[in-house]
Structure formats: C-alpha cells, structure tokens
Design a protein that fits this description.
alpha/beta, 8 strands, elongated, disordered N terminus
C-alpha cells in the first residue's frame, strides 16, 4: 500500500480515501496562452492542462512565474512542472526532464504594422533596436548569428516597446503572439522551428511522469 494511503488508515479505524496526487505547474507569463489580463493563470494551454489533470486524476496548482524562478522551483521541488520552448533536439535545461511535447511553433521576426523588414535588411537595424522574447527564440538567433541586445521576460512589455517605437524588431514565437488581436503586429521572416515541451523536475518519480505523459497524450493540441 502506498505511503500516502497508509497514512489515511489507522489501526481499528475506517480507512479513508487518500487525497489525489498534486502537481505544481509553473507558467511563463504569456497573455492568452498562460495568462489573462488580470495577471492570473488562464488561457488556451491552461484549459488544456486542466483537461490533462482530469485524465491523470491529479490536482493541479498553477503559478505564473519568471523563468529564473521556474528553474529554481524545478531544481528544488519533486512535484514541479513547466512548459519550455526550445530548438529541436536541445537537451532539457538543468533540473528538468521532458515528459511530452506540447506543440511546435516558429521563431518569427515581428515589426509594427506596415513596417515590412526583409531578413536581408536586418543588418541595417541597430542592435539596440532589436528585442527577443523567449530562450528558445534566443537560441535560434544565436545559431543564425543574429545579435540582439535586449531580452524581455514579459511579452506584454516587449509588444508595448515595439508599438511605442522604442525597438523596431521583436523576435518571438508565432504561438506566443497568436492570440493578439489581428493587425497588432506585422509578422515577417520565419527563423527556425521550435518545440514546446511539458517538462518536470528530475526529482519527480518515473511513475508520475509516465502518468502525466499518458494523460497529456489524450489532450487535442492546437496548431500554430
């Protein structure tokens, strides 16, 4: 009998049902994908994660957090998971293990509406006028030897800076910007494919990661 089940049973007393297993899922703040306008966990993938939890029979606690805090949590907690988007075939970051793919997307060059910028003309844009959102996107740019000075942990901040003409170019994923109102930004050149992973702490038991993978396989994934 599992330990948590034994704990619910005392000699000579009725054995009560054990509480469901609990997973903490840390989400990067991406509007309409993981976050609503009030700064709470909500959006497309939050709904999908809740479906996954019901299939797995677990209790899911969702938290919005910066990438440094997410990495710290996965290295310290054996019940922590997250979504991470990286170039294909990239090994998981330290403290993480891949559980299942969550989807595929593209790193894309974005500008303000009407500001068409062919990739061949990117060299004319000063590095200070370029911004990147997402570690996966940054790795694609590094592979292509595209220099970017400004990195943002907030997609909302990055989009606002582009709209205010504080930067001319924003490099981000198509998925991250897919829920913006039409005409908000101009999508330009595609720079390379990325994979979004359901990843959990390396401290998480194999039986639980297998359970999560089976449950996630039952969730219909969107295409971007």
């Amino acid at each position: 009998m599992p330990h948590h089940r034994r704990a619910a049973c005392l000699a000579g007393l009725i054995c009560l049902p054990a509480m469901a297993d609990t997973i903490r899922f840390y989400l990067p703040p991406v509007p309409a994908i993981y976050e609503d306008r009030a700064g709470q966990p909500a959006g497309l993938y939050v709904d999908l994660l809740q479906h996954m939890a019901s299939h797995a029979g677990i209790t899911l606690h969702l938290y919005l957090a910066s990438r440094p805090r997410i990495l710290q949590s996965l290295q310290r907690q054996d019940d922590a998971c997250t979504a991470v988007t990286l170039v294909a075939h990239a090994p998981p970051p330290a403290g993480m293990q891949y559980v299942s793919t969550m989807g595929h997307t593209q790193a894309v060059l974005f500008t303000r509406p009407g500001d068409v910028l062919p990739l061949a003309e990117l060299a004319s844009v000063p590095q200070a006028q370029r911004m990147v959102f997402g570690e996966g996107v940054a790795s694609v740019l590094a592979q292509r030897q595209i220099d970017v000075v400004a990195h943002s942990e907030s997609l909302q901040e990055a989009v606002a800076m582009l709209q205010a003409q504080r930067v001319r170019v924003l490099f981000a994923t198509r998925a991250a910007l897919s829920r913006l109102p039409p005409g908000t930004l101009q999508a330009g050149a595609e720079l390379g494919p990325l994979v979004s992973w359901f990843a959990c702490s390396t401290r998480m038991p194999a039986a639980m990661t297998a359970r999560l993978a089976r449950a996630w396989a039952k969730v219909p994934l969107p295409r971007f």
